[in-house]
Write a structure and sequence with these properties.
- This protein is about 60% helix and about 5% strand.
- The protein is built from 23 helices and eight strands.
- The radius of gyration is 28 Å and the shape is elongated.
- It folds into two domains: about 5-415, no CATH class; about 430-520, Transcription Regulator spoIIAA.
- By secondary structure, it is mainly α.
- A four-stranded mixed beta sheet has the order 3-4-6-8, with helices on one face. The chain has a two-stranded antiparallel sheet with strand order 1-2.
- The longest helix has 28 residues, at about 260-290.
- It comes from Psychroflexus salinarum.
């Protein structure tokens, strides 16, 4: 379904609302990822703005939201140490963008179509679990670490579970009250009886929760209550006193390092990780899309590449499509590009015009928003649905969840994909042929080769031939085969000698060497 003007108009108000919600979620994450990367704090904001506006315009995805991602934070952190400056790393970000555009033109984006559904659903469910677990400390006012949203380890040496243990003895009751009130507002806002009113239908519940949380904390301050939250529990955005000072936050690449080969190695690392996460997020986003629209993954790679070039030129971190923001966008009602672009525009306007107001937002309120997003990604019904599909779907699904939970997103993609491929190869191994047995004066067996019989089927076919009884009749039927690997012909040729010694009457039907090349010539 292509977006037309009427479709955009239909969802315009809800898209604006969704863009605002995504902005509220993205803002602290952009700052947190900057900290985790060891980069200037404002570099994450730049990447968020570019991911929203530039990638939003150039991509043909209706719901993807791009920005800085925790998956590349470690690469940037190491790169700064290696190259000696963030300005030098910006050159690698630009080169990574060029590589991504090249991959798009080479149609490498089709790799995304090979991601197994069980793995993609596992990634989404694991992100939901991590969102919930990572936000629990912030719900209780333990706000030392806000980054590492898709990684088991935090940049301060703690991890997801040790962060939970750190809550004991450090509870901030003001933050806890704000979390509970925010959750009550967000959950209650979606009740059917309230949705009958236009205000509740179009005004975002997340924004309502944020506004109430600000007012509540300001009340705590005015009453000199011990429940008042200080700046360490609030959004911490760089503040400029003038437009000139604002633009001083932007940095520019140091092209003097262009001859340094380490820059290209770093660029390849950024391009690989950013492309892999973007492709996965695109596939996952298409599954979340209520209209089930298909995104061109090749165009998505090009859009991400353009985004990284622009981000690198003005001092931003690398951008990728990010599952957390995309799922938040869908859950908030985003249905067209308007929501994605709006979140980028709002981020630019707000950090320029009202940073003081943004710095009043309690992190606890944002945690409440992420709790709800996380729950929708990892609800019990999802687990039940996958379990009913059998172990071939459930095992890749649950293994992906566990690996992501205890490592990071990229490792989860690799391991989950490997497990899914294992089941595919195992099925292929078992389905090399169909065999039948006929009784009579002389036992007769039929080995009918599958349409595609590859070298992966060698062991199974050899094992079958080894167990053909002496004195029997064996028919090897290739009438349904479209391609037979050369190794299979070698096995059959060798078996001809074995058949003579075992007094096996061997009959070969519709099988000739042209099948080793016929399939490929058709492609």
């Amino acid at each position: 379904m292509k977006e037309n003007l009427n479709f955009i108009k239909k969802h315009f108000v809800t898209d604006l609302s969704s863009g605002l919600v995504v902005f509220l979620i993205a803002l602290p994450l952009c700052l947190g990822i900057s900290l985790a990367s060891g980069a200037p704090l404002f570099s994450g904001i730049i990447a968020g703005i570019i991911g929203g506006i530039v990638v939003g315009i150039t991509s043909n995805s209706s719901i993807n939201v791009s920005g800085p991602a925790a998956s590349v934070a470690l690469v940037i952190f190491t790169a700064i140490q290696t190259l000696g400056s963030f300005e030098a790393v910006l050159v690698a970000v630009i080169l990574a963008g060029i590589i991504q555009i090249g991959l798009g033109y080479l149609k490498a984006g089709t790799v995304a179509y090979f991601f197994p559904n069980a793995m993609i659903k596992g990634i989404l469910a694991s992100i939901g679990l991590i969102l919930i677990l990572k936000q629990i400390p912030h719900a209780f006012g333990v706000d030392e670490v806000f980054e590492g949203i898709d990684s088991f380890k935090n940049n301060d040496g703690t991890n997801t579970f040790s962060g939970l243990m750190n809550i004991v003895g450090h509870i901030n009751y003001g933050a806890l009250i704000i979390t509970i009130v925010s959750l009550f507002i967000i959950i209650g806002w979606d009740r059917p009886f309230l949705k009958k009113f236009t205000f509740f239908k179009f005004f975002p519940s997340a924004l309502a929760a944020v506004i109430i949380s600000i007012l509540l904390n300001e009340y705590f301050k005015a009453s000199a209550s011990s429940l008042a939250l200080d700046t360490s529990h609030l959004v911490n955005l760089p503040v400029s006193d003038s437009i000139g000072e604002f633009f001083n936050f932007f940095q520019f690449p140091d092209f003097s390092v262009i001859a340094n080969m380490e820059v290209y190695t770093i660029a390849l690392s950024i391009a690989f990780i950013a492309s892999l996460e973007s492709l996965l997020s695109t596939e996952a986003g298409d599954k979340l899309d209520p209209y089930k629209r298909r995104t061109s993954t090749n165009r998505e790679l090009k859009a991400q590449g353009i985004g990284n070039i622009v981000s690198g030129l003005i001092g931003g971190l690398p951008v990728t499509a990010v599952i957390v923001r995309t799922s938040a966008n869908v859950n908030a009602g985003g249905r067209t590009k308007t929501a994605t672009i709006t979140h980028g525009v709002i981020m630019f306007v707000c950090v320029l015009a009202i940073p003081y107001i943004l710095n009043l937002i309690p992190l606890a309120a944002l945690s409440a928003v992420l709790f709800v997003v996380g729950y929708k990604l990892t609800s019990l019904s999802i687990y039940k649905s996958i379990f009913k599909q059998g172990k071939k779907q459930f095992l890749p699904f649950i293994i992906t969840i566990l690996v992501v939970m205890f490592t990071d997103l990229i490792t989860g993609i690799i391991v989950g994909g490997t497990v899914a491929i294992f089941f595919i190869l195992r099925d292929n191994y078992k389905n090399a042929y169909i065999h039948d047995k006929h009784s009579g004066s002389k036992e007769k067996k039929v080995l009918k080769l599958a349409q595609e019989t590859t070298f992966l089927n060698k062991a199974d076919i050899m094992l079958y031939l080894d167990h053909v009884p002496e004195g029997s009749h064996l028919l090897i039927d290739g009438s349904e085969a479209k391609f037979v690997h050369h190794d299979i012909f070698e096995i059959i040729e060798e078996f001809k000698q074995t058949a003579k010694f075992k007094d096996i009457n061997l009959e070969i039907k519709n099988l000739d060497k042209s099948l080793t090349t016929k399939f490929w010539k058709k492609q």
